[in-house]
Amino acid sequence: MTGYPIRLPGLVLLLSALLALPAAGEGYPSRVVTLVVPYPAGGPTDQLARQLAPHLSEKLGQGFIVENVSGGATTIATGRVTRAAPDGHMLLVHNLQIAANVALHPSLPFDTEKDLVALAFINHNPLVLVGRRSLPANTLAELIASMRTAPLKMAHPGTGSTGHLTTALFAQEARVAIDHIPYRGAAPALQDVIGDHIDLFFATPQSVVEAVPAGQVKAFGITTKEPSRQFPNVTPMAQALGPNLEISYWHALFAPAATPRPILDKLAAVLQEIMEDPALIRIWADAGVTPYPKELRAPATAQALLASEVARWGAVVRANNIQPPAQ
After folding, report:
1. Are residues 114 and 92 in the same domain?
2. Across residues 132-137, what is the average pLDDT?
3. Phi and psi, residue 82, nearest 5°
4. How many domains would you assign to the chain?
5. Residue 144's domain is classified under what CATH number?
6. Which residue from 244, 194, 209 is spatially nearest to 223, judged by alpha carbons?
7. Sign of CA dihedral 144, 208, 78, 310
8. Which H or E run contains 249?
9. Confidence (pTM)
10. Cβ-count burial of 284 within 10 angstroms (0-12 exposed, 13-18 middle, 19+ buried)?
11. Average per-residue pLDDT in the chain?
12. Does 6 map to a domain?
């Protein structure tokens, strides 16, 4: 027999010490956690992060703060989280744009699908196609018929944005020509539709829930396959123009890919609890937002959903030759 014998008492002590070590998730979080948002304060992604933060703090016993890191078409914030220590203390709250950016910015210094892990898809909402109140058309069919005669000016919140991609997909599926009018954000674009200066815009439900019934804008379609509770008389575009126009503007929470599984599981479990909170669900419902379906929002499906969205919006980018905005 060769080598050094291991004495039984020493082996027992070693095994006992290893068994006594806490699991990776037991001591998490050990300090304040930062939720990075790739936009300025005030938008829907920022609002979601600030809604989640107190719930996460209460359930996990540490502070959760929101840090707004805008710029670079959201890639600066995304890159920061991919480079963060993989210990669960810096997380990314992002939306559909993260999937589109894979095709829009092919030379990014990170791999979205490999360097990040999706903890959960959290909530989602459709988009509402609204137009200036002086447009002659009153229905989606009338609008499309008029657009096949002469193109209309469609605003979007900037080149490469989710609104831009949705606008391009609408034109593609409706077989109409449009004039793309980029704005620096959704708010000024919508204000110009309300002011009767621009023809059409894809808006979030919460931004037009009062403007539509007040007659400030006309609502022509909504990116769903079934009628909307908030906009019951607005045409579901997936019914009228095909399933490609069932579009959800979703939000998800991401962590660096090397984060230990016990930490990811702990965060994911807490998120599932938070997404069942009746008060939070009511807040979202009032804004036309719903929790992501329970069977689709957990880590087991989140990464696959991300991959499918990367493929979907990459196809739109390539089909319409959409180039990233100049930096």
Report:
1. yes
2. 97
3. -65, -25
4. 2
5. 3.40.190.10
6. 244
7. negative
8. strand 249-256
9. 0.86
10. buried
11. 90
12. no
Q: Calculate the alpha carbon distances from 74 to 183, 268, 318 in Å.
A: 16, 24, 20
Instruction: Report helix, strand or coil for 117.
Output: strand
pLDDT band at 26 (very low <50, low <70, confident <90, very high): confident
Domain boundary among 213, 229, 245: 245
For the chain, percent of residues with pLDDT exceeding 90: 77
Neighbours of 157 (CB within 10 A): 23
List the strands of the sheet with 178-182, edge to edge.
178-182, 152-156, 200-203, 128-132, 217-222
* Same-domain check for residues 135 and 240: yes
At 82, which CATH number? 3.40.190.150
Residue 260 covered by a domain: yes
Answer yes or no: are the C-beta atoms of 274 and 251 closer than 8 Å.
no
Q: Tell me, yes or no, whether 41 and 190 share the same domain.
A: no
Residue 80's pLDDT band, with cuts at 50, 70 and 90, is very high
> Could you report the per-residue pLDDT of 274-298, keeping only the tens digit for each?
999 999 999 999 888 999 988 888 8
DSSP, collapsed to helix, strand or coil, labels residue 171 as helix
Q: How far apart (Å, rounded) are the C-alpha atoms in residues 179 and 164?
A: 11
Residue-range definition of the domain harbouring residue 232 = 128-245
pLDDT digit string (tens) for 102-115? 999 989 999 999 99
Question: Which of 202, 217, 245 is the last residue before a domain boundary?
Answer: 245
The pLDDT of 242-263, averaged and rounded, is: 96
Mean pLDDT of 227-241: 93
SS3 at position 26 = coil
Nearest CA to 292 out of 127, 44, 124 is that of 124
Q: How far apart are CA 300 and CA 17, in angstroms?
A: 33
